[in-house]
Amino acid sequence: MRYCKLSIANLKLARYFTMCVALLSGMSINASDGVVPKPDWSISDIPSQDGRVVLITGGSSGMGYEDALALARAGAEVIIAARNPDRGKEAVARIQESVPGAKVKFERVDLSDLSSIRELARRLNQEFSHLDVLINNAAIMAPAERGTSVDGFEMQLATNYLGHFALTGLLVPLLRKSEDARVVNLSSIAAARGTINFADLQAEQQYNPMSAYAQSKLAILQWSFELQRRSEAAGWGIRSIAAHPGVAVTELVARGPGLNSEFGQRWAVDRDKYHSAAQGALSTLYAAAAPEAIGGAYYGPTGEEQKRGPLGFASTPASANNEADAEKLWVISEQLTGVEYP
Fold first, then answer.
1. What is the DSSP letter of 138?
2. Which end of the chain is more exposed for a tag (fewer CB within 10 A), N or C?
């Protein structure tokens, strides 16, 4: 067997141990938390991914690229989905140079454009018989000016959350054909500072760059937990797992608030203390590939303020566990995107 399974007795024991560790450390955990990840878990612990098909949004750079490289090295067939074809082809070439014989390809998608998302889903449903892992990684962060997508949505909400909500819903049929389907959703420690402003979801009345970013990342976390609940209730067989990288040195700041912004200057001072993109990708890779990763869990660094440190269960904001808000957000998301889950 490619993936081991825990016995019920062992799983209950592991969950009890997890709760004890969490209580001693003061960490908030989810009811679905299970086996504690090894603090020194690394890409060398990834089991063979031979025969598995993985789609990674934003996989042409940063942590998405590191995800693609590691999973291709483990034998997966990797699809990098991103906006820029030139950067995408360059990423494919780099992976193939590092991993001779790697099965990796590029697919163009603009996550702020629902028509582009539908077109990608149509191509994938035609080409592939199944999809094993969907890593919803792509994001933009805190552009100074409020932007709108072609569909009229605030750009961070559109790219970070609504686009992934729509893509996942359109790919549920492919995911259900997998023996071990996983949806890995990238949140952020910024989610702890976020609120879902249902009265002004699109920040039309007042736009604050970081507040809009935090809202999008909280939305991802609420949706991830709700997706797990719905998968369990409907028998989809899909593990929905959330992860965050802590603080990793990527292009996100340069492309968002900018390196010359107040935020960018503060970030630059401390950047040597933060994770590399490869280190930041570990929580995502664990969620995507570790046999013991649990649906409904949230993984990330466990060091100071969760910005860095060894892998473990991430602290979950209380607002992320608000099921009423999660259900409300789900309904609104289906209305806005026009995508209804099976």
1. -
2. N
Q: What is the mean pLDDT of residues 202-222?
A: 97
Q: From start to end of 25-95, where are the E strands?
A: 53-57, 77-82
- Quick one: DSSP state of residue 314? P
Sign of CA dihedral 143, 149, 153, 157: negative
Q: How far is CA 320 from CA 28, 120, 169, 214, 217, in A?
A: 12, 29, 20, 12, 10
- What is the pLDDT, as a whole number, of residue 268? 53
Average pLDDT over residues 276-295: 94
User: What's the pLDDT at 29?
Assistant: 41
Nearest-angstrom CA–CA distance, 299 and 282 = 9
Report CA torsion sign: 34, 35, 38, 41: negative
Instruction: Enumerate residues 6+ apart whose C-beta is below 8 A from 265.
Output: 259
Instruction: Output phi, psi for 165, to 5 deg.
Output: -60, -45
Rounded to whole angstroms, the Cα distance separating 247 from 24 reads 25
The CATH class of the 8-337 domain is alpha beta
Q: Which of 27, 66, 70 is nearest to 48 (CA)?
A: 70
Q: Which bin fits 185, alpha (ψ -120 to 50), beta or left (φ > 0)?
A: beta
Choose the weakest-confidence range: 27-41, 151-165, 319-333. 27-41
Dist CA 300 CA 48 (whole Å):
22
**Phi and psi at residue 200, in whole multiples of 5°?**
-150, 60
Please check the confidence at residue 67 and state whether its pLDDT lies above 50. yes
Task: Enumerate the active-site residues.
Answer: 213
Sequence-ordered list of residues with C-beta below 8 angstroms from that of 308, at least 6 positions apart, any chain: 246, 247, 273, 274, 275, 279, 301
Please state, in angstroms and as integers, the Cα–Cα distance from residue 279 to each residue in 77, 183, 268, 283, following that order. Answer: 22, 20, 18, 8
Mean pLDDT within 309-327: 95
Distance CA 340, CA 326 (A): 15
H/E element holding 120?
helix 114-127
Amino acid at 182: R
